[in-house]
Amino acid sequence: MKKFFCLTLVCKLFALSEFELHHIDKVHKLGYSGDTIIIGVADDAFNQDHISLKDKILKSTYPTDTAGKQLIPDLKKSTHGSHVAGIAVGAKIGDSKPYGVAYGAKFYGAGVFPNGSYTQIPDIYNFFKDVSIINNSWGINFYPYFNLKASNSGLVDCTQTNQGTSYNICNTPLEYVMKADKVANDMMRLSKDKGVLNVFAAGNEGILSPALHAILPSYDESLRAWLAVGALDANEITLESDGTLIIKSQGLADFSNGFKGATNFSLVAAGVNINNVDSSTNDKFTKKSGTSMAAPMVSGTAALVKQNFPFLDGKQIADILLSTANKNYKAPKFTVKQVTDGTNQPKFLIVYISQDPPGIEDEIKRDLKQLYNGIQVQVNGQWIDYSDYIWDNRDSAQSQKLNTSTISSINGVVRVEKEELFGQGILDAQKALKGLSILDANRLSDQDVLKYEQEPNTAYYTINTAGYDAEFSNDISQRKWDESTHLSSAINKPTHLANLNIGLSKEGEGILIISGQNTYEGATLIKQGELKLKGKVKNNAYVEQKAILSGNGIVGQNLNNKGIVRPGNEDLNDLTVQGTYTQEGVDSKLQLDFGNYKNSKLIAKTYDIKSGNLEYIPLPKYYILNKPVKINLGDLEKSLSSFNHVLIQNTYALNFDFVLSDDLVSINKTLIKPNLKPNAYEIPNTSLGNALRQLRSRADLSQTYQEFFASLDNGIDVKTKLNRIEGSGYLSTFSNHNQSNLMQNNMLFTLHPLNINNFAQNNNILLASTYLPRIFSNEEYFWHLTPSYKYYKDKDFSGQKTGANISLGENFSSGFLAYALSLSSAKFNFNNGSDLKSYNMDLLLNYNHDLDFIKILSGLGIGVGFNTLNRFVVEQPIEGKYKTLQTSAQLGVTKDIILGQDFIFNPLMYFTHSFFYQEDFKENKSPFAKNYESLKHHSINANLGFNLAKNIEQDDYQASFSTFVIFEKRIYGRTLENKASFVDFPIAFIQKYKLKDNILSQGFNSEFLYKNNVFWQFMLMNRFSHNAYELHLMSSVGKRF
After folding, report:
1. Helix 718-726 × helix 703-713 angle, to 10°
2. Which of 326, 352, 367 is the last residue of a domain?
3. GO molecular-function annotation terms (predicted)?
4. What does the pLDDT look like over 497-552, one tens digit per residue?
5. E strands of 534-692, at which residues?
6. Is the pTM higher than 0.85?
7. Catalytically active residues, by annotation
8. Domain of 304: which CATH number?
9. Residue 403 belongs to some domain of the structure
10. Residue 748: what pLDDT?
11. Are 477 and 556 in the same domain?
């Protein structure tokens, strides 16, 4: 019999896309993409070259043959897995192409189906052990709840015969999985051992209960990290203005299995005509339908939940998805399931939802005709109404299994409750990203039951934030144990949850914010970390030792504090307790924040203070010095004397003296008077701290200064802020830039700082190579051009300098005289956010004299610098421009010691006197801008070292290679001092900087001199000092004439 369906496509103007249905589009706009999350996908195959999956699949595995060779899948045939993976994590290439729910996530892909000789299934347990979520869009056609399986004869019971022995898989599904289904058994182990969430497609056979793998948690109630997913057709769902989803009869996919026996761990998602990866190509997409497509919608959303709440395990991710599933929908009167029973003959099941079917067949037929509205199907060449075709091909197997006494005479027509089709509801990604919505006893265990303090036995839902901060902003209600949703034969079934209320227990470090209007009936326990209450909890709350309760919410009954309670959100708001506030324990604290004119309060109906402390905490505000701050305790003032101590928590700079009036219970006379610490804002090597204290004490500070001191007083980035105010970068670069600029130019291309001419014809003061010019000629003059580069790295800054100099020299019978002009630019970037740019010009003179038994070294230099200092403290950059002058004089001795035929050793000793002058200058007007007085500084350094050179002589050139070490000791002028004052206020201070005392230079030099009197050199030098390093690179080319 041939069948052809003739359907008319109608544009549904108000229908939803799958992302709209589940609010996935809204979650993406909030920036959630599943980034950093890795999921697993167990399926047939994955095209890692497809544009949507490229770089998405981190690793893959497939079945192997007996020789260990791995299957290479045929991606033109095995297209299912790539489509599924694309729905979950496909890359976002552009808005015009389909992409995944968690398009920022990646995945591990496992092919789990034997193929031909490839019968050895991969080790799924170890392959997936590092993932958080596994998508399973696969299953077998066994339905344990109904004891049915699909066969050539239709739906029959699950009894099978193997080697003469009959057994029933549906009666013992767990035993079957553990003995005969390694993949599913590994999935169970991963969920139990490692808390991995397994998401299973419910199946596509139109059965009112999930297939065997999807329903396993009904038979083992310790299997909580497990979800069953059914399919919807988003194109058949509309959204009302009040937010209600209207589900048409076809909105429930006719192929999708239901959730009889599995409602506690099931939900539905879009799974019809889902457009995604076509693995037969590398860049095309195709539409597929099935619960296989709905499952990755859930898996992708689970990845988004894991991204937002990284501390959750698989069971808790499932709890969030189930508790936040959208229940604001209107189910249709009935729907029709197309049953695939293993035969080639379609069967249909007419399902009335949460209402009894009509008892008269004609009324049911009338409902069918209204639903399909004249759609016809061709059967054996004859067109008939589709509704009649459905009626004539009803499935009786399921209706006979169900207890439908009111319609027992009508085959293929049943009643189910809407939860048995929708589970806990419709996937809602936006609500899921807001955390738990229901504390469900049906997903807890006996181990969660606790008799706490005076509370009755309660089942507590535990959240361990594990050091993370998170917010649950949904209203959290509770759902009590419902025995009718559990199988009496299930293993690990709780036996102590009946009639118990559900509470919430916060464990682990980190902050959990609860901001909804919560109605769960159990107590709230804060055992570790902090719970910040911005909403309301209905019943009692308990704070254990070292735990913290804060916020401006409401505790509906009593609050017992053995730890810390801090009302408000550091914003002077109040925490309300509608019963009694009890504080006990010597380490317990009630902390109240305050500002200049207001404080946070704990407002309770009654107070029972047994022990502990009351602490006042100043918030990061600007406090007027010596002005009393009044603390308003409300009715708590009557219990003030019951605290062990009343304390002030000091800030970084302010020390608050707590002053009580003679009447300790008169709250309006409880005063806090801020007084400045004598060492507030202290900075080493400067009197700036005293200046800041004077500035802080002024009554005429602008709002900008007040806000800055407010953050400073309360310890917010104190060191950084003080360093930025100090801004001593221009001083810290003195020895590395201004002073050494002269010295470096004077020693350019020599290993002695005072000799800029390595090519004097007679008696170079340091380098063995300086005798090379004598070999070829007796030219009297020379010149050379030298570009250079320097890199600076200090604990407070980094920088670089580039430059060049031109040198001229003249030889005498007993020495030589050389002149140089040097131009350079430098930039330094400081850790405190400032920078210094400098341009320098130097004139240098060097004269060396040979006394035969010893060589005299001498040099003079003078230079000017043009500098721009940029700082940032608050609001806008601060800039100052100034000029500098530097001079230097050097005097020393050396001697040539010949070692064999080719080596020359030169011991060195010399002294350097430097003078540095910085003009006075003023920074542009901005908060904390400064006036700088002029600076004059003298410094004397002693230098001791040696150079060792090897000379090589060839027919056309002479070469020299040398190494040197020089130790420099500052013997006078170790500290720079500069007087300054603030531009806005006439408060003067002195800034000091300690210069480097000891510097070690080490380097290498090479030079070549040719017969045409052209020469070139290259030198590398390293300079080391305390917490500082410099690298110098220089090259030179010149000619003798």
Report:
1. 130
2. 326
3. serine-type endopeptidase activity
4. 999 999 999 999 999 999 999 999 999 999 999 999 999 999 999 999 999 999 99
5. 536-537, 541-543, 548-551, 554-555, 559-561, 564-567, 575-583, 589-594, 602-609, 613-618, 629-630, 645-648, 654-659, 671-676
6. no
7. 43, 80, 292
8. 3.40.50.200
9. yes
10. 35
11. yes
